[in-house]
Amino acid sequence: CGEKFLDEAPNDQVTDANFYKSEQDAILAVNAVYSELGKGGQYNYALWGIGDIGSDISYTGGGGGGDGIEQQQLDNFNIPSTNPIINRLWGGCYIGIGRANIVLQKVPGIAGMNPAIKNRCLGEAEFLRAKYYFDLVRAYGDVPLLTVPPLTPAEVNIPRTPAAQVYTQIVSDLTDAITKLPTTYSGDDIGRVTKGAAQGLLAKVYLTQGNLPAAAQQAKAVIDSGVYSLFPNYGDIFKIANDNGRESLFEVQYVSGRNEYTFDGLGFVGNEFFGPRGQSIVPQGGYGFNIPENDFVAGYETGDLRRDVTIWKPGDVYPDGRTQPASLPGSPSGYGCKKWFIGKVDTRVWDSGLNIKVMRLAEVYLIYAEATGPTTGTSPLGGLEALNIVRRRAFGLPLNAPSARDVAAGISAQAFKTAVWRERKYELAFENDRWFDMKRTGELLTSPQLLAKGVKPTNVVLPLPQSELDINPNLKQNPGY
Amino acid sequence: GLPALAHSTPAEAESRLVRPAADVPVSGRVTGPDGAGLPGVTVLVKGTSVGTSTNADGAFSLMAPEGSTLVFSFVGYTTQSVVLTAGNASALSVSLKEDTQKLNEVVVVGYGTQQRGSVTGSVASVSGQEIAALPVADVSQALQGRAAGVTITSNGGAPGGAAGTSILIRGITSAGNNHPLFVVDGFPLPDSGEDQLNVISPNDIESVDILKDASATAIYGVRAANGVVIITTKRGKAGKSTVNVDGYRGVQSTWRKLGLLNAQEYAVINNENRIAANQPIVVDRLRNPAALGEGTDWEKEVFRTAAMQNYSLGATGGSDKARYAVSGSYFKQDGIIIGTNFERFTLRANGDLQVNKMLKLGNSIQLTHQEDRQITSNSGEYGTVQQLIRMIPIVPVYRPDGYYYEPRGQQDNFVEENPLAQLYTNRKYVRNRLLTTLFAELEPVKGLRFRTNVGVDFNFTNNNSFAPKIPELTVGTDVYTTRYSTAGSFSQANTIYSYLIENTGTYDHLFADKHQVTFLLGQSAQLFNSQEVGASRNGYLSNDLQNLNNGPVNPQLGNFGYLGVPSHLASYFARLNYEYAGKYLLQAVVRADGSSAFPPGAKFGTFPGVSVGWRISEENFMKDNLVVSNLKLRAGYGKVGNPNNAGRFAYLYSINSQINYPFGPNGTIFTGGAPTRQPNPELRWETNDQTNFGIDLGLFDNRIEATLDLYNRNSPNLITSVPVSLVSGTYENVPRNASSSYNRGLDFSVTSHNFRNAGRGLVWNTTLNFSTFKTRLTSLGAGLPFNGQGSLSGDIVRYEPGYAFGSFYGYVADGLFQTPEDVRNHATQTVNADPTKATSPGDIRFRDLNNDGKIDAADRTFIGNPNPDFTYGLTNTLTYAGFDLSVFLQGVQGNDVYNLNRYLEEAPLYGNASGGTRVLGRWTGAGTSNDVPRAIAGDPNNNLRVSSYYIEDGSYLRVKNLTLGYSLPSTLLSRISAQQIRVYVSAQNLFTFTKYTGFDPEVSPSGVDRGIYPQARTFLGGLNIGF
Q1: CA quadruple A176, A179, A183, A187: dihedral positive or negative?
Q2: A18-181+435-464 CATH choice from 3.40.50.300, 1.25.40.390, 3.50.50.60, 3.40.50.1820
Q3: Are A350 and A371 in contact (CB under 8 A)?
Q4: How far does the CA of residue A191 sit from the closest CA of chain B (Å)?
Q5: In this complex, do A283 and B485 lie within 8 Å of one another by their Cβ atoms?
Q6: What ipTM is given for this predicted complex?
Q7: Any CB–CB contact under 8 A between A470 and chain B?
Q8: A17 interfacial to chain B (CB closer than 8 Å)
Q9: pLDDT tens sequence across B256-302
């Protein structure tokens, strides 16, 4: 009895020695890149905390007191470097990036793969890497840029890379992904990244960089592709039956009935967390987070159908016939976030199956409008028309007929830009984007509402997580944190 | 066993100069103290291999030379020598005394035994009698305070010891697994947690021997770094048949209540914190606190007085050819937290068979069946203890239809679970364990023994739970919601098993009457494996049919499980013991262990140990000393290992396939694969080397016996789980041999036989055990300081060189701000334009340690050490005229406890949860309190941050056990042919003296109280009957 007795192979584990060998392995490796999208580091916790509550459209709500302390910190611009939301966003993005890096390193060398699948896998990884880096660079500013899997701690613990260089990588990834990704999918591949998703995201990246012609070009390519069309009725976008619907470029895929009490399951927590507190119209009674600000609600134009899709207000009728009270714990105004409400469905505690829209055609129109300015005409599409198409839908009007709700021609470029920003605020409310938009447009530091809450110039970026600073001495904290 | 010591007196040496005389027939009888014949006694002609043993009546006969010395020896009795004369040869009458002196007690040292007087390492022994004296489920709990150098800390008072009991031998060696190796009847148990000794009935134990220093533990090599606990169960003795019936029944209850807010107090403080934060009062009935009255006392609802009982029946006996010990026991303990209980049945059969002169066979077999129900405690923030502290008193226990009331967001503005609702879930653990060994021993010539030992350990655990569906209730407009909206079940089956085969050869011989040599050579191979399967079902139609099979099959609910890969340990070992003239002692040990967990080429390690001893009291110049009856100096050094923190296959980059994401119109779940941990091909087992110096002292004919040991243990390559930056794309910590530490300490024990009269006269013994150690993390190598156990408000524990393992790290609290000037004059804490969101008077002042004018993460420092300055146990036993009284005190001194329960007790200051009455003394204006902060919803100053404010002195002194018994006199017993009848009453944890404010200061070695299951105070009465 000797070395042979001790010669035990890890046949209960998959290791790098027996993985990344086949097409199936490549697909598994890509699936792992997607999985972070649905978790707490992205759409299940971090992004609604930052994108919605951290902005001027909503506040924490919940039970009051210490309930949702981490959301309150973002809400009130009193954000410690130990805030779990900023920690989760950082981790979620980098875990996704790490998995994308492995795909991009290993998949090219896998022999015998269908070339179309191989291209798709690489395009998916490039898109997702770009998406994660885009979130990082907007939230934190300069961030360490890794494009190959690190092997040693020294390769991990690097200093922050200038944001411009990160943007260069994002643009490069998306540009390449566009050439590799298919236009549409069928069957169980629906929900994977498409060419349109990459084009739409690239348009948004260019817009963020201020490269307006390039943004307009990418947005136009999506609009003209003929793949996407607006739902005539705004409310239809947010129905489970319309998941991955005609308007969507990219969605986070959620299913219900799988996990309990977790931000990291396969379902979305918003049905429960945003449900009117204690009203029992969602499975656990409703926690009442993410309460619309009074100013935000007051800002809806009369007749804007988006209001009743997006928010609860006193008197709104519940599915069981009861009505929303005049005030609720955590919501003295009696308002609530309704956009992700699906009611009492078969869930395991928190997980709803409604997909989160990451990018949809209406936003592409608005990107196009902002990048193009108040140009008129329908062919080629003018910026004014692009904005008005979105507005007409909001009022239930035919999309292509001029209407009384249109922003009229002759508006100044500056006023038009402001009008587009306002439209984004209402069109995309509670879609995890408002903080990023306010940062991009500069409203973050000028909004009277946010000034009243104590926003400071340093708040244009979030603090780096303390735990990361503790591990990596080469990381320096953002000023003011 | 090893041979008895060669007592070589000058007189005997002289007699050996005489020419050997002719053999004469010798016959006689050996009796015990009670005058009855003693069978199985070894009779040996000194200096030869000529001998015999006594028959069932104690009689013997043999041929021996006149003038030679006959040595009579028997386990448990003092060895006696008689010089053969013409006068006594035909009717030798020898009476053996029962051995009460520690010097001659047999110590189990691993693959053999030694007499206490020959031991050169550091070995502590606890008798079965001491263990059985405590009414506990787990043997390890009964060791607390009984052995110097062994720090026993219970992780909670859950019934059956299910919370686990930590045994730290000579300090903390690593940030990871510090469990000692348990060896039961020669079988080294697989490492499977801190609650596994509760499978053994304490009544079955003969002795527990704890090998502490590396020179002693090196015989167990790579697994010995944390010490070795050797448990020996009772075996039969020839001729002495006894049947013992033991039983006790008792009641347990909490010894302390925290004191929780009543409904009125809760309303006052909740209103106050909302008003302070400019928040509206949303629950209407809170507006009039006085009308709320007392409300529900959740402490009263959750804790209860609980019963416990234990019955055991054992029989031992046999002849010199065959001996047996069989027993059965039943133990049942209800928990003092409602919904918890533990039940255990054990069966044991140990046998020894002398097949012929050369061959001996034996076995031990133990079967245990356990069933228990437990609640969550001391983990995270949703244990039952935390739930009951947090629960608001303004709601009832039950709703109108008799189901448990669930707090409602609308009516109560509180959504945490009713702590009693756990009773809905029918969760049961069933454990069955079989541990058996079989040995054969061949002795072809006197002194040479070959032994083969094979054994198996099967450990089966089932965990079944069913959560019922509870209907909603509508009364008028009032809707009572439920968390239990669908009925679901969960079942899990787990098997852990291990096989062992060992072959040893031992040769012992006395050369030239002075050189006693014992040599052991052996081989051991052990296999370990485990497997687990689990399944869950959801959406049961009825709450009545709770079987897993009765639920609808839902393909979306994952079944899970794994079939483990076996791990193997192959070992070779040798030990040499040499004694010169009973004065100079030497032991040398070496073990080579190979483990399958490590990379090819790096599987084997060698672990040596050497120790020497000098029995000064055997030297001529000390022989007649009237004061010092025993004096021995000992010194030892060894190097041993610990593989438990290394895991398996850490050298590979493993792909995690538990990553899922749905795609497609039906949300089909797809598997993903990615590494979630960086590999470490350099990972090895941990090692430590230890130097030990000891002195054993006996004074006044061993009326006072003392042992003192000093040790220095260095751990140069400890595995620490080092967090990696998330930038790596992985999130699991990487185990590295990065850090080093030392443990230096002192173990001291002294026993004083204050009175030792015979018969029913006064006997009074006092034993004190004292241990102290200092542990320091000396280096983290290339790693950085990292954080350990955390709470919701941040990490509490930090590992940094220069500090003890598990040290607490955080802000230094410095009283409360009393006035706005205080706040202004101090470093900035929380500033906000809105005064309700800024630091204000009544908030905790934190020290600005770096004097930069602001309080931030850089102002954190080491604020506490969970390791005690010293631990001790003091036992006094008195017997007189049939009465026996035993008082056992146990304590720890100088340790810090991080009281996380206080987060919950003080939660009413900051939110909607209720809590402890401590908040009644809150700050309400300048000078009102410098201790309990103000009430302010949202806690803008973050008073809940990790700080010295939550650290308390964890020292305690406990009257662990007080027992008063009465044994019937033998005159009475003989009439009913009984050997013993004893009745007793006993109290456990009768008094606890501590400044700690939580339920109980004994909060696991981490020193962080996360809602620990409190220790109960127990009163019981019992009966021992022996036939």
Answers
A1: negative
A2: 1.25.40.390
A3: no
A4: 6
A5: yes
A6: 0.95
A7: yes
A8: yes
A9: 999 999 999 999 999 999 999 888 888 889 999 999 999 999 999 99
